Structure formats: structure tokens, C-alpha cells
Amino acid sequence: MNICVIGTGYVGLVTGTVFADLGNDVTCVDKIKGKIDSLNKGIMPIYEPGLEEMVKRNVDDNRLFFSTDLKDAVEKAEIVFICVGTPPKDNGETDLSFVEGAAKGVANAINGYKIIVNKSTVPVGTGDFVRDVVEKNKTHNTSFDVVSNPEFLREGSAISDALSPDRIIIGAPTKQVAVKLLELYATIGRPMLITDVYSAEIIKYASNAFLAIKISFINAIADICELTGANVSDVAKGVGYDSRIGHAFLNAGLGFGGSCFPKDIQSLVHTAERLGYDFKLLKDVLDINKERVPHFVEIIKYKTGGLKGKVIGVLGLSFKPDTDDMRDAKSVEVINMLLNEGAVIKAYDPVAMENAKKILPAVKYCANAYEVSEDADALAIITEWREFKLLNMERIKNLMRRPVIFDGRNVYDAERTKKMGFEYYSIGRA
Ligand code: UGA
Q1: Quick one: 245 and 175 in the same domain?
Q2: Residue identifier of the C-alpha nearest atom 20 of ligand 1
Q3: Backbone φ and ψ of 90, nearest 5°
Q4: Structural domain of residue 76, as residue ranges?
Q5: Cα 142 to middle of ligand 1, angstroms
């Protein structure tokens, strides 16, 4: 099949590459020329395990192309995927201007029947919006259909998520249109659900919202554990053995960040409000999340006896492991609060430091965790990169001015770490 993918961000680049890998001819289009030039030279705009190799393989096999020429890519394509950014406005509402721009671009280029697919995360009703924009602006008298096919991939495991998703959701206006999309995904062999367009749009938000609810729930339980002396890791384990609940997304910590959960939950709250429903549950989820970092910094401040002039070593900057994405990363909140209290910050992250330098210029960036530990009054673990679990803790202890660890992601075993001679504070664990 010939496919056009508009937008080479996370979703567009990964989706386009995976479709090419499944044997389709794919052109990924972006209006940022520099990005397309880099991609054509094999330089990835993001860090994502396995992506670079897959892009190279498919470019070499002439199945994957990068271009700024939207018209040419749409003309050739049977299916056009809209994968552009959907950032939040100040009031939490989703800004659809990039989606609108992409839809106008398709309308200008349309030369015959196409299926236009919304893959970006967009509020319910956006399918209608895209249909209207294309209808009003189309330069060729042709029919077309608009489908919702939300993406569920996670950063850091995007390739395997796209190749082996838990489910494929196709919200289509008719069965025939849905079948065309089914063909595209047939080789993946994963569960598929065909729905109307509105339901598919809501499935994406409901999924992210439910996962965020799990995270805020366990974080609230962590606070209770701290007040009672219980251990949230054991509580989560015990709760998760109930097959109706499961263990996933019950890791207590500094709360959820990234480019999806915070914005998507706000967007759903906003959409609900527009429809006349006050989504109190999700407002609480956001409030609990907002409290995580101030609570953590308060503990650091109290246990270090004041932060003025103290050297705090920060391990992990990206919003989660296996990505260089700093969008809504908890490290930014933590570091800015520590700096405001007069602390000196040294930091290390395996891949996100280049991105971090643009947002956090006042930090001293180090080559590894050991350099961070040198003369530090405390270490704060913000992102649970695997390499932090494998550190030589004896060496770390000897390098530090005072061996204190504030573990914001419960990376270490409390008993063992204390036995090694550290003062150790974690989330929801006595
Ligand atoms: C999330 C969803 O998991 C994907 O299914 C979805 O496709 C994507 O958003 C999206 O809408 O595009 P992602 O933002 O990449 O994916 O990251 P997650 O792994 O879901 O983590 C989100 C945040 O929750 C991170 O800050 C992470 O540290 C935090 N988290 C996750 C916890 O605090 N505790 C947990 O138990 C799990």
C-alpha cells in the first residue's frame, strides 16, 4: 500500500517506519526542512531504541522516504495519516491548529479518493472537524473518508509497541473503510476493534486517563504508607496480584510527566467541561500529581537541614528511562525548586543531557553517576534508568561528602542500601 504520514514527531516517525517495515511504500512528510534533511542523512531527531536501524533498513530498501513535498506524497497515497502535534492551550484545551493545517494540506493535494486517518491524540469530534476542513478546502471534486486510529505506543519502547500493540482501534464511518485499515495491520496479527469514530477518539483518552488514575492512586497510597510506616512497594505487589487490577502502572514515585499524560488528562477534563460534565475524579488525579515534587523537595530540605549551599547530585533527567525527552520531566520541577532554595546542582543522564542543557542551564552536567557523587551532600534519583540499579554503591558512598540518598523512583532496596551505610529516603516506604 502507498502511505503518506504527515508529521515526523514521535508518533509519525515511528508509525511510518513500522509501516514501511511491514512492506508498504511510505513517505513521511514534515514542513521543517532541517528535520527532513537530517532524516535523509540518517540522523534521528529523537532517541528511541531500535529506530535508527529500522529507518536505515527501510530507506536502503526504497520503502521509506522523507520529504517536505506534501502534495506529491498525498497524490501518491491511498491512506494519509495525520500524526502532527496536538499541544495544550493555556486552559488545557487541545490546540488543533497543526491538525487543521495538515487537513488543509491534504485538501489542497487531494486528487482522488483517500482515507484520511487521525493518529494524533485528538479530542472527540476531531474526525468531524477534519472532514469539514477537507470538504471546505478540497481543490478536486472527490470523495474521501476520515478514520480515527489512535496510537498507543510508549516512548522508549515505541518500536515494539507499534509492532506488537495490545490492540488496534479503528474508528471508521463504514465497514468497507475499516476493512482497508484492517488490511494494513493484518500482518501484525494483534486484536483489532472496529468502532465508530467518536468511540475510537474517546478510547485513546480513556486509556491514558485510566493509567494516570492508577499512578495517582498508588501515589496517594504511598503518602498513607509514609504516615503509617507501611511499605508501598509491598502494598502495590499485594494489590496487583488481583488479576482484575494487575501490577502495571502501580509504581509510586514523583508522578507522571512526559508529553502525553499531563496534557491528555487536562484535555479530557476540558472536553468534559465543554460537554457539561464536571470530571472531578480526573481533577483530583492532576492535583495529586502536582503535589508529588513539592512533597519530595520538602523531605530533601528537611533531612539535609536546609538546602542553601548544599551540593545535590541528581541522577536521571528525562521524564522516564530510555528516552531523551525532557517534556514535562519531573527533573525540571525538582531542580528548579532545589535551585530556588539555594542548592548547587550536579546532574547526569545517560541520553537526555543535551536536551536538558537548553532548559536547565544552571546545572553542572557530569560524565557519569560517580562524578555526580563527588563531594555531594545528597543524591536525588529522579529517573529510574537501569544503569542506576547497577552502580558500585560502595564507590558512590566513598565519593560523597555525606552519604544520603533521596530515591524518587524506589530504585533501591531500602534495607540493603541502609546496611551499606547510606541514609536512605524513598517514596512510601518506611
Ligand atoms: C503514554 C502511554 O503509556 C501510551 O500508551 C500512549 O500511547 C502515550 O502515552 C501517548 O499518549 O502517546 P508515555 O508518555 O511514553 O506513554 O509514557 P508512560 O510509560 O506511559 O509513562 C508516563 C509517565 O508515567 C512517566 O512520567 C512515568 O514515569 C510515569 N509512571 C508510569 C509512573 O509514575 N508510575 C508508573 O507505574 C508508570
Answers
A1: no
A2: 154
A3: -60, -30
A4: 2-195
A5: 40
Per-residue pLDDT tens over the stretch 275-320: 999 999 999 999 999 999 999 999 999 999 999 999 999 999 999 9
Q: Closest Cα to atom 8, ligand 1: which residue?
A: 154
User: Which residues form the pocket of ligand 1, taking CB atoms under 6 Å from any ligand atom?
Assistant: 121, 151-155, 208, 211, 215, 249-251, 253, 255-258, 260-261, 264, 319-320
* Rounded Cα–Cα distance for residues 135 and 114 (Å): 12
Residues 169 and 268 placed together within one structural domain of the fold: no
Instruction: Let me know: does 171 contact 197? Beta carbons within 8 Å.
Output: yes
Q: How far is the CA of 320 from the centre of ligand 1 (A)?
A: 8
Give yes or no: 260 in active site: yes
Q: Does residue 430 fall inside a structural domain?
A: no
Q: Which atom of ligand 1 is nearest to the CA of 383?
A: 28
200 in any annotated domain: no
Which residues are 66's β-sheet partners? 28
Which three three-digit cell numbers place residue 305? 537541614
Residues 308 and 235 in one domain: yes
User: In whole angstroms, how large is the CA radius of gyration of the chain?
Assistant: 23
Among 72, 74, 31, 40, which Cα is nearest to 59's? Answer: 40
pLDDT in tens, 31-43: 999 999 999 999 9
Count of beta carbons in the 10 Å neighbourhood of residue 362: 9
pLDDT at 148: 98
- For a pocket test of ligand 1, which of 249, 256, 319, 411 has the largest count of ligand atoms closer than 8 A to its C-beta? 256
Does 155 lie in the same domain as 225?
A: no
* C-alpha span between 414 and 410 (Å, rounded): 8
Predicted TM-score (pTM) of the model is 0.96
CATH number (domain holding residue 143)? 3.40.50.720
Total number of domains in the chain: 2
Of 136, 168, 195, which one is at a domain's C-terminal end? 195
Which of 94, 320, 385 should be mutated for ligand 1, with most atoms under 8 A from CB? Answer: 320
Is the CB of residue 429 less than 8 Å from the CB of residue 406? no
* Angstrom distances, CA of residue 306 to CA of 169, 380, 421: 51, 15, 22
Q: Ligand 1 centre and the CA of 367: distance in Å? A: 27
